[in-house]
C-alpha cells in the first residue's frame, strides 16, 4: 500500500515552501467545453458576429488531453472521461478513465493542488453545478479508484440494472483507505465547498453512527442548503453548501423540454436512400428551466467563495469552479441546456475578472477537461440542392437563435441514451497574468505545474514511483 | 454593372502604396483542418504525447468563421463552405456559400490580396493539392458567382444527374464578365500557380479558338505537367503547373482502400436497441497510396514557389498554399487520407519556417477555412460495460496507430455520400512575426487586413458600395 506516502511528503514540502508571496489561482472548468460548444453558445448568446467574454481573454492556447490504460505501462487511450482529466488537472498525473486522483495501475493516491494549497497554509475551495461528489470536484479533494464511489453506500455493490460496474473495496476505511468521496470531502481541509449532491451526505459514515453531513459538521463545516443560508452564513466558518440532491438544475431547456430528435425518413426512403422524403425535427427556441428558480447560480456561489477565500487572507488561495452541465446536457443531447451552462460559465469568468482587478496576483485559467459529442452542423444539408433526402443518422436540434437564424446541432456518436466524449484538444483561456506562464500548446498536466508554481507550492514533488 | 470598378480603384491605390518595405506573406490553408483533424493527425503521426510542428508555433489563436445568406441583408448562416471562406480570407469580405470573391446579393467583384499584391509590384503565387480551379485557390485570383464554373464549358448548364445546380451567365465574357475560373487564372498576373486541374485548361476559351492552356501561355505562363518539368522550368518564367486532371492523389489511404464503415447490428438488435449484438468494423492501418507516386508533393511545389517568388525580389510576395484534401478525404470518410494531407501541410510549414529563417520579414499564417465532420471518438463506447450493443449511427474507422493503440474516427453528419462541414471556430497558427499582429481571437476577415497591412498594401480600399 502506497497510500498517502507521497501525499504526506508533498504536504510537508508544501508547508515549507509558500513563504514567498500571496497569490491566488482561480481555475474555471467548462466540462466538455470544446470549440463546438463554444461556437454554439456564441452564436446563441451573442450572435454569429458576437464575442463571448472567453473570446476577449488575452490568452488562448490549446491543451493536449492525455489518458492511459489502467496499467503501469501507460498505453495511450485517445478519449478521456472527466475523472481522469480532473485528476490530471488536480495532480499533474495522467491516469486512466474513472479514477479520482489515484494512479493508473498502481492505485497510488496523488496529492492534489487543493491539498497542497491547504497544507501550505493557503485557503482552498471548490464550486460546482454538479454534485460535489461528481468526478471533477471530487478529483481535487478525494482519492478513490472509481468515480462511482460517491458515498458510503456505493463502495462495494455498484451496479446498473444488475450489471456490476466495479467497486472501491481497497478504498474502504476497513481496508486502510480513506472511504467514499463524500466521506473524504467531509474530512477534507477545504475552506468552502459548494454545489449539489446532498443525497450523498445523508448515509451513515463507514463504521460510525453519524451521517456524512454530521461528520462534515464535526470537522468544522457549516452546512447551508439554500441561497438565503448561503448569504447569511457566519463570515469565519468553513462552508459546505449542498443545494440539490444531485446535479443542480440547469438554466435553459429546449421549449417543451425538447432534446435533439431524429429525422423521420419516409417508408420509400428506408428502402433506398435516394428515394422518398424526410421530415426534419421542428425548429425550437430555448426557454428558462423553471426548476432552476431559487437555486444559487454558479455566479452567486463563486461570489461567496471568493469572499470567503480572500477575506483577511495574507497567504492566497486555490479555487476551482466547474460548469458541469455543458457536458451533462450534451450527453443527453440537450443543446439549450449546454448553452445556458456556457452562459453560467461566462458569468463566473466575469466575476473572477472583476475580482482580479482588485487582486492583481490572481491567475485565472479557463479550460475544458475533454471534448464532447455535439457538432454545429448546417441547417439543411450542404447537398440539399441534389434533391434527395439528406439527414443526420443521429439526433439533431434546430435552434432558432435570438438573431433569427436557425442553428443545427448534431449528436451522433452513438445509439445509446448518452453520447460519447470526443478526443480533440481543447481550448485554454487565461487572464493577462497567465500570459507569462502559458505557451500556445501544452499538455493538460502542465496546467497543474503552472498553478502549483504560481501559488509558490514548490519544490517539485515526486508523484510517481 | 459594378464589375471591376472597385477592383481598379484598389489596384491604383495599391500601386501607390507599397513603397515602404519588402515583406512576404505565406498563408497556409488546411482545408477543413479543425481541432479534431489536428488531434487525429497528431495521434497518428506523433503519438498521443507527441507534438506536431503546428503545436510548436509560437502563436495559436481562434478564428470566427462567418457566412451570410445570398442577399444584401447579411443574415447569418452558421456553417460555411470553402468558397465563401476562401473569399473572406482573400478579400476581407464575408459572403455567401458557393461564391468566389464576389459579394453576397450584389455579385460585386471583390479585389483579392493576390491581385492587390501584383498591382503593387509584389509577386504572388498559389499552390494547392486540389485543382487550381477549386474554390480555395480560385478565390485568390478569380471572381464568379458560383464555384462550379471552373472552365468555359461549365458556365451555363451545370447539373448533376439532371439536377440543375446554378450557372454563371453574368460572368460570361459575352455578358461583360471575366469568364470561367480557369480563363481568369490563365489571364491573371500570378507569378506561379501549381496544383491539379489540367482538365479545366483543355476546353477552348469563350469566343476564341485556343484552349485555356494556350491562353495562359499567350499571357506569359510556362506550362509544366510533371516534377521533372517543374524542376527544369526556366528561372525567369511565370509558371503554371498542372500535375493531374483534377485533385492531386493523396498520400495515404486506408489499407485495402477502406473508408470508415458502418457497424453491423444483429437482427435482434434492429428490433430493440438493448437486445442482440453488433459487429464493429475491423481495425485498419494506413498505407501509402500508389497513385501519389511521382506526383509533386505539396512541399516540392512550395519549395519551387518560394524560389520563384523570392529570387532577386526587392518588393516581397504573397503566397497561398492549400492542403486541400484534409477536407476532401473527410467528406469521403477517409481518415487515413486526411492524416496524410495533414502530414503534407506539416512539411509545407517546415519549408516555410526554414525560408523565414533567412528572410525575417516573412509572416507565416496557418489556418483552416472551416471545420469538418470527422470526430475522434472512443474505440469501444464509454458505456460498453453496460452490456448492450452501443455503436455509432454513422460510419466509423478504427485506426491502428504506429504506437499500437486504436483510434476511433466517427463520420455521422449525414447519410449522403459526402459528409457536411461543421461550424466551430477554427485554429490559427503563426510564426513569431505573427505575434505582433494577431490577437487571441479574430474574425476570419481580419486575416485579410493583417496580411494586407503586413505587405504594405495600404491605404484602405473601400470594397463595398
From TrEMBL, chains A, B:
Transmembrane segments: none annotated. Pfam families: Alk_phosphatase. Keywords: Disulfide bond, Magnesium, Metal-binding, Phosphoprotein, Signal, Zinc. The keyword Disulfide bond applies. The keyword Phosphoprotein applies. Zn(2+) binds at residues 31, 327, 331, 369-370, 421. The active site is at residue 82. Binds 1 Mg(2+) ion. Binds 2 Zn(2+) ions. Its cofactor is Mg(2+); Zn(2+). Belongs to the alkaline phosphatase family. This is Alkaline phosphatase. It comes from Sediminihaliea albiluteola.
Amino acid at each position: 500500500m502506497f497510500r498517502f506516502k507521497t501525499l504526506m511528503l508533498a504536504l510537508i514540502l508544501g508547508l515549507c515552501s509558500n513563504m514567498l508571496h500571496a497569490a491566488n489561482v482561480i481555475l474555471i472548468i467548462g466540462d466538455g467545453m470544446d470549440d463546438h460548444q463554444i461556437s454554439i453558445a456564441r452564436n446563441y448568446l451573442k450572435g454569429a458576429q458576437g464575442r463571448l467574454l472567453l473570446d476577449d481573454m488575452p490568452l488562448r492556447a490549446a491543451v493536449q488531453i492525455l489518458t492511459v490504460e489502467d496499467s503501469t505501462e501507460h498505453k495511450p487511450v485517445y478519449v478521456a472521461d472527466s475523472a481522469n482529466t480532473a485528476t490530471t488537472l488536480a495532480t499533474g498525473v495522467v491516469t486512466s478513465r474513472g479514477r479520482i486522483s489515484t494512479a493508473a495501475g498502481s492505485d497510488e493516491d496523488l496529492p492534489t493542488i487543493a491539498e497542497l494549497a491547504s497544507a501550505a497554509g493557503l485557503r482552498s475551495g471548490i464550486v460546482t453545478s454538479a454534485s460535489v461528489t461528481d468526478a471533477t470536484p471530487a478529483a481535487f479533494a478525494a482519492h478513490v479508484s472509481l468515480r462511482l464511489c460517491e458515498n458510503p453506500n456505493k463502495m462495494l455493490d455498484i451496479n446498473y440494472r444488475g450489471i456490476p460496474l466495479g467497486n472501491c473495496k481497497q478504498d474502504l476505511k476497513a481496508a486502510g483507505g480513506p472511504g467514499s468521496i463524500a466521506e473524504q470531502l467531509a474530512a477534507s481541509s477545504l475552506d468552502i465547498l459548494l454545489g449539489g449532491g446532498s443525497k450523498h451526505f445523508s448515509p451513515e459514515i463507514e463504521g460510525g453512527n453519524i451521517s456524512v453531513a454530521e461528520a462534515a459538521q464535526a470537522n468544522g463545516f457549516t452546512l447551508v442548503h439554500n441561497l438565503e443560508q448561503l448569504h447569511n452564513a457566519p463570515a469565519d466558518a468553513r462552508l459546505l453548501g449542498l443545494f440539490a440532491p444531485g446535479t443542480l438544475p440547469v438554466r435553459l431547456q429546449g421549449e417543451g423540454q425538447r432534446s435533439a430528435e431524429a429525422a423521420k425518413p419516409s417508408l420509400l426512403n428506408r428502402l433506398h436512400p435516394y428515394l422518398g422524403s424526410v421530415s426534419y425535427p421542428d425548429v425550437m427556441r430555448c426557454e428558462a428551466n423553471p426548476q432552476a428558480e431559487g437555486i444559487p447560480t454558479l455566479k452567486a456561489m463563486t461570489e461567496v467563495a471568493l469572499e470567503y477565500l480572500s477575506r483577511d487572507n495574507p497567504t492566497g488561495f486555490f479555487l476551482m469552479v466547474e460548469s458541469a452541465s455543458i457536458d451533462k446536457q450534451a450527453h443527453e443531447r440537450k443543446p439549450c441546456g449546454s448553452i445556458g451552462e456556457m452562459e453560467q460559465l461566462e458569468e463566473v469568468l466575469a466575476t473572477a475578472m472583476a475580482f482580479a482587478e482588485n487582486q492583481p496576483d490572481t491567475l485565472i485559467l479557463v479550460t475544458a477537461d475533454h471534448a464532447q459529442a455535439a457538432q454545429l452542423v448546417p441547417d439543411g444539408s450542404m447537398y440539399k440542392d441534389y434533391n434527395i433526402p439528406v439527414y443526420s443518422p443521429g439526433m439533431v436540434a434546430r435552434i432558432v437563435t435570438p438573431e433569427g437564424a436557425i442553428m443545427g446541432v448534431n449528436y451522433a456518436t452513438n445509439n445509446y441514451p448518452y453520447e460519447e466524449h470526443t478526443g480533440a484538444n481543447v481550448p485554454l483561456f487565461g487572464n493577462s497574468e497567465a500570459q507569462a506562464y502559458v505557451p500556445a500548446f501544452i499538455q493538460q498536466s502542465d496546467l497543474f505545474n503552472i498553478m502549483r508554481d504560481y501559488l509558490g507550492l514548490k519544490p517539485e514533488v515526486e508523484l510517481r514511483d
